[in-house]
Write a structure and sequence with these properties.
The chain is an alpha/beta fold. The protein has nine helices and 13 strands. The termini are far apart. 47% of the residues are buried.
Length: 249
């Protein structure tokens, strides 16, 4: 039987120099935690753009940063770290094909781990967004659970994952790639930079990164304003699915 050809392709723009990288993935879902975290890490770590995602399934969107047009899904990285950022919501079909292609790309780079970063709706955050978010973990490598507990995380024990991160975890399980999803308690209807900061704290310890979180927290209101349109578009896409992307307990 002829194998169906992928409609999603990762196009490398230059030699990346990646060496068995840890790959962080941030796509817009609950609270935009993934996109905010990925964007902030790219900026703080001064990572160069090394690739973009091309697909006829992609919405007709170009994002502009500092007068430069950019593809909406890009990869930044150097050394042992790569960060995938999506600045457009992913439809179910695009999520499926994108995560399959990303998993193939990661295997080709001999990646150590793929880490998805997202939010989980929280009544506690809705009542008081000033409280620090708890971070839950889902992984296909149970040995990571004990290690991550030392970094203040909690194991997500029962529930349902839906959307891009569920597709990513499923593809990693099939391909035998180590995968971890970090889920920060988050506002559901609004961008949540505070939840993103909690996730980045865990990534700092896990991957031994050095990141200054003060600007992220100080500029949280400005980030919310800048992210409103993406939040609105993400919610519109999610409302077209049987269940909005995210995690359910």
């Amino acid at each position: 039987m002829e194998q169906t050809r992928s409609r999603v392709h990762i196009i490398e723009e230059a030699a990346s120099g990646l060496s068995r990288p840890n790959i962080i993935v941030g796509v817009p879902e609950v609270g935009l935690v993934g996109t905010i975290s990925a964007s902030y890490l790219i900026q703080q770590l001064n990572l160069p753009e090394i690739a973009f995602v091309d697909s006829d399934l992609m919405p007709q969107v170009i994002v502009v940063h500092e007068s430069v047009p950019k593809h909406p899904v890009r990869i930044y990285g150097k050394g042992d770290l790569a960060i995938v950022i999506a600045e457009t919501p992913l439809t179910p079909r695009l999520s499926s094909e994108f995560t399959a292609e990303l998993t193939r790309w990661a295997r080709g780079k001999e990646a150590k781990i793929i880490i998805g970063v997202t939010g989980i709706p929280s009544r506690k955050r809705e009542m008081s967004a000033e409280d620090k978010s708890n971070v839950f973990v889902v992984t296909n490598d149970v040995r990571l659970n004990e290690r991550l507990k030392q970094h203040g995380t909690r194991v997500f024990e029962e529930g349902l994952m839906v959307g891009a991160y569920a597709a990513l975890l499923a593809n990693c399980m099939t391909a035998g790639v180590t995968s971890l999803t970090l889920l920060a308690e988050s506002l559901q209807q609004f961008p949540d930079p505070g939840a993103a900061a909690s996730v980045i704290e865990v990534l700092e310890k896990l991957l031994e990164l050095k990141v200054n979180l003060k600007p992220l927290l100080d500029e949280s209101e400005e980030i919310r304003v800048k992210s409103r349109e993406l939040m609105s578009t993400t919610q519109a896409v999610q409302q077209g699915t049987q269940k909005p992307a995210g995690v359910y307990t």
